[in-house]
Design brief:
The protein has a five-stranded parallel sheet, with helices on both faces. Strand 4, helix 9 and strand 5 form a beta-alpha-beta unit. Helix 2 packs antiparallel against helix 3 and helix 8 packs across helix 9. The two termini are 31 Å apart. The chain is α/β, with parallel strands linked by helices. The chain has two domains: 83 residues, no CATH class; 146 residues, Rossmann fold (3-Layer(aba) Sandwich).
């Protein structure tokens, strides 16, 4: 299933199949089917222009990021903090010898802030290797180096190194941490990823306090026309991947809801 999911994620990238269509259409231009080739190339051009000009990706991502509100104050005790992997670059870290983070670095930096604010809370970093061809290169190795550089005692942190996806993050984390009934655990991950993450943790038996970070959208003023093919494709790819994952997780019974929401909110 893991290998299949990686293949599906690859094929869901608009840039992949648009490139394939463009290449196929270009080949057809040099054959007797050049009329069909012109049609394919024209269609790809129109799609790219649409993606570049209109904020389709932002419109897909915004409902995901708005599902759980930003947390400005945490009231009451915090017994544990869980941060999901996906914000480190294992290969760069290994090659350069210093912790390298992705665009989702807020997962790590906000966790440091929370750890300092709640010094008695237990910390769990969950992230093995989601790499298909280098499974021994673990995210936890980069995480250890990062947290040590930030001055967080490593003996305070539990590192879960076997998970390869969000479902396994939840299953293995709860097996490792064994939170007690009534404890309050904060879940830190990217805002776009939070609905699916909350869903799998609820299914696994924990009602976490969602702490979304790494926002990409900031309201209606961002939704004007533009002209950037690369960012447009990136946004559509990210949004399409996450919506598809939400549906897949529900079909695979990894969550009880297609689009998890804060408790008391069903729409």
């Amino acid at each position: 299933m893991f290998v299949v999911s990686k293949i599906v994620v690859f094929l869901l990238q608009p840039g992949v199949w648009l490139t394939m269509l463009l290449a196929g259409g270009t080949v057809l231009l040099w054959t007797r089917w050049r009329r069909a080739g012109r049609g394919v190339v024209t269609a790809v051009t129109l799609i790219l222009a649409t993606v570049a000009v209109f904020p389709l990706g932002l419109l897909m991502i915004s409902p995901l990021e708005d599902r759980f509100p930003v947390v400005h104050e945490l009231e009451g005790p915090v017994h544990g903090i869980i941060v999901l992997g996906g914000a480190v670059q294992q290969r760069v870290t290994r090659y350069r010898g210093q912790p390298a983070l992705t665009d989702g670095a807020e997962r790590m930096t906000e966790t440091v802030a929370l750890a300092r604010r709640f010094p008695a809370a237990r910390l769990v970093f969950t992230g093995g290797s989601g790499l298909l061809f280098d499974p021994d290169l673990k995210e936890v190795d980069t995480a250890r180096l990062f947290f040590a550089r930030m001055g967080i005692p490593l003996e305070r942190i539990q590192f879960e190194a076997e998970s390869r996806n969000t479902h396994e993050n939840a299953m293995y984390t709860l097996r490792l941490a064994q939170p007690k009934p009534g404890e309050r655990w904060v879940l830190v991950t990217s805002a776009m990823h939070m609905p699916r993450s909350v869903g799998v943790f609820r299914k696994a038996g924990l009602e976490p306090i969602p702490y979304p970070v790494d926002f990409q959208t900031y309201g209606s003023e961002q939704r004007g026309l533009g002209l950037n093919v690369l960012s447009g494709l990136a946004g559509v790819s990210a949004g399409l991947r996450e919506w598809a994952a939400l549906l897949a997780y529900r079909l695979l019974d990894r969550t009880d809801e297609i689009f998890p929401a804060p408790r008391g909110r069903t729409s």
